[in-house]
Amino acid sequence: MSLKIAALTALLVFAVDRMTKYLVVEWLDLAARLRVAVWDPYFNLTMAWNEGINFGWFGGEQEWLRYVLIAIAIIICTVLVWWSRNKSSFGIGVSVGLIVGGALGNVVDRFIYGAVADFINISCCNITNPFAFNVADIAIFLGAVWLILFADRAANE
Asked: How do residues 90-127 score in pLDDT, each as one tens digit?
């Protein structure tokens, strides 16, 4: 059951991620506009091309790094799916699906754009957040947290 839930969750996350990236980057042309104030200063669309990992760490102009990051994402997805194949936990299925769907969404970005398209910028309380993220990043984060919460239960299966 866990793999079916993971597959459905991954498909949903991947579809929503791709749809939002198409609408924001292509249709709204955020790549050219760079910033769209939605609910300033709390929520804005701010174009950021992430060539590295979280917060742009290890980013740069090295073409080989893009393919290393793609390979790492695919390896992590494969290991997670393999690990969860005999689990029956709904929580494990959802968490693996969130991570896999988000990771594959960002992998597609690296193939299409050469970097991950980040555009959601949230600031609050007179603190300006310089970072942007996307739907895939949210899914990966939530999946990792949920996986940690359900890992103990999965170990007992």
From this structure: 889 999 999 999 999 999 999 999 999 999 999 888 88
The single-letter DSSP state of residue 51 is -
109 a catalytic residue: no
Q: How many angstroms separate the CA atoms of 97 and 85, rounded?
A: 12
CB 84 within 8 A of CB 3: yes
Helices (H), strands (E): how many in the chain? 5, 3
Contact between 53 and 124 (Cβ < 8 Å): no
Q: Which of these is catalytic: 17, 29, 40, 137?
A: 137
Indicate whether 142 pLDDT > 50. yes
Quote the mean pLDDT of the chain: 87
Name the residue among 113, 119, 104 with its Cα closest to residue 28: 119
Active site residue 137: yes
